[in-house]
Amino acid sequence: MRTVTESQLSRVLAGLTGVPRIVAGGNYASPFRLLAVADASIAEFRLVMLNAQPGIPDREGVTHETSFVGPGMRGGARLRYFPCRLSLVPHLLRQRLVPDVVLVHTAPPAGGALSLGVEVNVLPAAIEAVRARGGLVIAQANPAMPVTYGDAQIPVDAVDYLVECDEPLPTHTPTAPDATCGAIGAKVAALVPPHATLQLGIGAIPDATLDALLDRRGLRIWSEMFSDGALALEKAGALDPSTPITASFCFGSAQLYDWIDNNPRIRMLRTEKTNDPGTIAAHPALMSINSALQVDLFAQANASRIGGRTHSGFGGQTDFIVGAMHSPSGHAIIALRSWHPKADVSAVVPLLTGPVTSFQHSYIVTEQGTAQIWGRDCVEQAQQILDHAAHPAARDDLRTAGRRLGLPLR
User: Fold this and answer.
1) DSSP 342
2) Global pTM exceeds 0.70
3) 224 is catalytic
């Protein structure tokens, strides 16, 4: 590994031939300093990121490639979306989107290793793929990046160039959930059995659910990601102290990052491990709690598209739903508002008109109630959704449309 200045790195990147493919850390650990150097040094390249945030290179000559569209790529004219479960993205990087350069945001080197900190995800697979073809691995080392363990630790000899920086990480301070999210969170929490293992994402509904679980004991976390809700559970004594908190990436407040820094309780693993459905299923009472943009009367969920445009992607939802449904006493829950206040439309529709993100859930939960899905026939499922999940203002139209679809709804 060689420590270089940005101008020295610029000369290295300017020497690349063809149209290189660059894989960069996404979510909230983007190596913006390295991306800026690449943008200024390479006329044309392909950029692969998951959940890319605003501020990434976005101009003629830069093609965006992703399996999970973030706000930095959403709606872009040069976007190539690759539908893919998150657990399979590492295979995609080895077989179809093989990188020429990998850019990572790390903590400074220590003990012969660099820590990927808050973003492990698919980066170990990307590093292996680029090393196999003789490409470059470049690190942006930042003392603000927390040191985490597990697969977050990469040897320094896996990195070709290192650029030092010192800048704050993006943070997110959760706000108190509104009454609707609070009601949804309480209903979801009521479904969580004692000593359950939790998988949740980030947002008002997951935060409200965790708020409603603070008085529990012996809970565990095996998740694609976690945020400040995990810290709140830890402070409340709700988590099993003998079980590590396992995830692939995290995002939250400065207090969260202080807590995870050099904390052996936190185990950050690569996506192939956290999102493997068989591994997920091995955890008893695995409760997979996810959201969606829409659900229909056939209990199908759309979590990826709005108005015919890709909004996000599958992410890990499909991985965890399959794993949870095979877990002993496990369940898969879709939790969402029954009505979209901004669009002023029902979140429950008769039949999805676009691609389905997931299906065969245990429960669909809204502020209206809990629809029991698993083990019911298709008519019972639809009736449960109509009676317990749909907004009252939408029920008459849903009933009429359901009957036209062959569902004899009451």
Assistant:
1) T
2) yes
3) yes
